[in-house]
Write a structure and sequence with these properties.
This protein is an alpha/beta fold. 44% of the residues lie in helices and 17% in strands. It has 8 helices and 9 strands. The structure holds NADP nicotinamide-adenine-dinucleotide phosphate (NAP). NADP nicotinamide-adenine-dinucleotide phosphate binds next to helix 1 and strand 7.
């Protein structure tokens, strides 16, 4: 299958690319981002090089014909582009909404438009949101309320687009709490994350587990249209356990 990983330079995308390179059913990876991304240093076999392509996209709202051509024939997309809460101060609120919500909605709509006549296979689109994202405006969370509602609106619009696509596009929303990389965070970072997690009450998931889950769902189909943090842990651990040599 041909897989698009959007936001290819990011934390989760880096692990997704690493696992996708080793996945026997993923035959082609389009690593889509605003910057070039190179192959992980531990994955430079010829087979890996052949299935990997870094594609730079200049406009995530209106796709150029070049980018559409790169995306053509893809079977699934895992969308990781967003401004995370820790980076909210670095851009305006309008930019946050555009990057975290509008880009993903534009992507699934573009994919749907390009596949309207292709009813032979379904395209799978996965949007990574967050466990606190809220779809009901009446239930605005106390912490980061506007942000959580905006991400919840993105979830609704993506799921609606898929529902209205007459089966051409399927969508799934992943709602992780805090995504941990045991190799990345230092002791101080871990302490800060743990304090934040306790105050806000966020669950956690290992980056390897969530990546294994998302790849599994992109390749084999969605268990359901919304995967909560516990689903991301459960499926990922099952998939990774099955990959371990006996
Ligand atoms: N990490 C967590 O603990 C956590 C927890 C819950 C949910 N999530 C969600 O999981 C998803 C992935 O998170 P992550 O930690 O992997 O995020 P990340 O490391 O910050 O990566 C974000 C990606 O989005 C791209 N991006 C940001 N602004 C952009 C723009 N203006 N135009 C185009 N691309 C842009 C970044 O590209 P550049 O490298 O060029 O900036 C990067 O590739 C996000 O939806 C996030 O909200 C993460």
């Amino acid at each position: 299958m041909k897989l698009i990983i959007a936001g290819s330079t990011g934390f989760v995308a880096t692990e997704l690319i690493r696992q996708a390179l080793a996945h026997p059913k993923v035959t082609s990876i389009i690593a889509l981002g605003r910057r070039e991304v190179s192959l992980p240093t531990d994955a430079e076999s010829d087979a890996h090089k052949e299935k990997f392509k870094s594609v730079i996209c200049r406009d995530f709202e209106v796709y150029s014909e070049d980018i559409k051509a790169e995306m053509a024939g893809a079977d699934a997309c895992i969308w990781t582009i967003a401004v995370s809460p820790s980076k909210l101060k670095s851009v305006t609120w309008e930019e946050v909404c555009k990057i975290s919500r509008d880009y993903a909605v534009a992507a699934i709509e573009t994919i749907y438009q390009s596949r309207r006549d292709n009813t032979s296979s379904k395209f799978r689109f996965i949007y990574i949101s967050g466990s606190n994202a809220e779809r009901d405006p009446a239930k605005k969370p106390l912490i980061l309320g506007d942000y959580c509602l905006m991400r919840g609106e993105a979830e609704k619009r993506i799921l609606t687009c898929a529902r209205e696509s007459n089966g051409t596009v399927e969508a799934c929303v992943a709602k992780p709490g805090i995504i941990e990389d045991p190799n990345r965070t230092g002791i101080l970072g871990k302490m800060v994350k743990n304090i934040g997690r306790t105050i806000i009450g966020l669950p956690k998931v290992n980056v390897r587990d969530i990546s294994a889950t998302l790849l599994d769902q992109a390749v084999n189909g969605f268990e359901k249209d919304t995967l909560q943090n516990e689903d991301l842990v459960r499926i990922g651990q099952r998939v990774l356990a099955a990959q371990k040599p006996s």
